[in-house]
Amino acid sequence: MGRLAARYPWFFLAVWFVIAVVGAGGARKAPSLLFSGSGDIPHSPSQRADSLLRANFDNPYSQLLILAIRGLEAPGASAEAVGRLDKALTALPQIAAVMTPETVLDKRLQLPPGAGLMILIGVKAGTVRDAEQAIPVVRKTVDSILAPIKGGHPGLRWAVTGRSALTYDLNVFNAKDTAQAEVRVIPLTLLILLFAFGSLVAAGVPLMLGILSTTVSMGIVFLLARHWVLSNLVQNVSSMIGLAVGIDYSLLIIHRYREVLAAAFTRTGAAADRAGRAGALEEAMGTAGKAVFYSGLAVMIGFAGMLFTPLMETRSIGWGGCLVVFVSLFAALTFLPSLLILLGPALDWPKALSRRLGGGHRGRKWAGWSHWVLKNAPWCAAASLIVILIFSLPARHTRFGFPEGRFIPRELEFSRGFLMLDSMGMQGLVRPINIILTAKNGGPALTTERVDSLFAFSARIRKDTAVGRIFGPMDLADGWPLAKYRTLYADVRDALERAPFVRDFFLSRDGRSLLMQVMLKPQVDLEQEKALARALPAWLNLPGLEMDVGGQAVYYNDFDKAMKASYLPCVSFVLAVTLAALLLFFRSPLVSIKALIMNALSVAAGYGAVVYVFQEGHLNGLFTDLGPSQVVPLTLPLMLFCILFGLSMDYEVFLLSRIRESFARTGDNEGSVIEGLAATGPMITSAALIMAAVFGAFAFARVVVVQMLGLGLAIAVLVDATLIRILLVPAFMKMAGKWNWWPYGSRRSP
After folding, report:
1. By CB neighbour count within 10 A (0-12 exposed, 13-18 middle, 19+ buried), where does 540 fall?
2. pTM score, two decimals?
3. 1-33+198-354 falls under which CATH superfamily?
4. What pLDDT is recorded for position 746?
């Protein structure tokens, strides 16, 4: 690759220029196509219930948006505004139905005077993602009617909320958050690179590569998202990982390239010409380039582990991670060497700054450090293990769950609307539990003979302290006695003629299934909701009927089950394939197994820090004013494991490949460790600081899951590059002695 880049540099740069321009166009549009949440869980109860609801029922409000309005209490003004809203929204092609306070069919959905206004909007959509497409149109229509009258009603507030509104708002919010994180981190990254290279141009090249990789990756995501459902976390991962590994890989190659040029200058006393630079580039690509290739392979293996999960969210992170690492790797092996050969001596511009910051004294200091570590190897190993254990201990107290409520950013229009519904006592409309009862024999689900048992089943649900209201054929109003339903359904066909809304809202088209929607009380938290969803099937005592339960609570129960089932195959794949790649590269079982253990230690340290800061609330005032989350998402440990296992391998490959080079040349284990650490220590430290800065910027995001991921990655990288790579690894290499490179050590093959 170095030889090709030196021979055809303008060709590679021209190709990358076209790729970058096209990628930038797609990158701007990608966030609008991404999806928040984890998507349907294949073959799960929640997916089956949602599919039945979409396919068999004509309920126009199965995909529901809710317009909440406060501060428009004057009867005349409110009636006029509601009438205009009803007319404008009904005219939209995306809207199936609109239910205003004047047209509400169930009096329980009417608010008392002074409580505000609520308009239910049914969207023509088969999925939540389809419903998201209607949200900007609906909000624009609402704003065009209410904004002009706000001057006469200073307290007027409104918001369009609902399940799909949350996913839409998080997409938009996440895109802005990512852009702000990038703006925060780029100046700090440039400063670290400046001290690492002592040159403005050399410092700018890795940053350029990181930005290029991120932009092109998001452009490809735009193309993929037009055909496949991808999570909005793709943009966070692409930004974090693209900047981090793009800079890391270019840092290693540039470091080796300048080292070879400096050695040539020392030998000859003259600056290298074009042929000399081409030779230096070839040598750098043959050593550092090879290390970068295997490092990128290890990172992609880590991300590929998440493809074993059944969830759209984690699979998207896996695809996004593999994609951005591949692009970064391709850029490092083609774009970067082409740029280096064309820059020539300008790489060290400005010379005065380069002389002041470059210096060779750092290598001598690292050599001295290496001698000290090897001299005190047992103590260094013990001390670093104790510190890592301290970082990891909080992980023992993990409580898995979903941070919700106050942890959803208040800036979202969804949140404003949700809080307004809460004050109205109607927030349960946003996430009902859907119960679908289907006749096993193919006959009608609602019959005169089943009235008593259906009423008893509904009464059993109402007894639960978490339940607020139920909407269904046996729950047409609060307090109706059994006798009234017996009278109503004495002739079911006649009842449906007299009360057609029962057929339209609660019965499937063929009559074989009926729907009950359970609305929970405002103070019920997610864990109570999930417990109720798990308990419901055991309460069914209706011969001839089978139950399907859907809704958010059921989805989260299915989510927990699916994630737990995916841990073993995911972790096994990453460990097995990474071990195979390390054995292929190092040809040493001991070094390869040791690398897996060291990576696991960095993952444990990062995860322990997340539990300590976010779940338990220690020091989390640095990141949020919301207090402890009390739970950690079940996806987080797996995401940290897969991402960090690959990223930690970066430093392992960088360090050990250099030690192995030296050992193959000299056969001196201790001397090789000293030489390898002295040569790569400054670069690894700089790379870790940059990676920690990139991840740390996301720890200050406003979405708590992104904060957790950013902090966990940043802490793990710092622990990995300090305690593990410059203390534990060299100490272990010293104590292992000749066994490090068994069985091929005696051959000393490169």
Report:
1. middle
2. 0.82
3. Multidrug efflux transporter AcrB transmembrane domain (1.20.1640.10)
4. 46
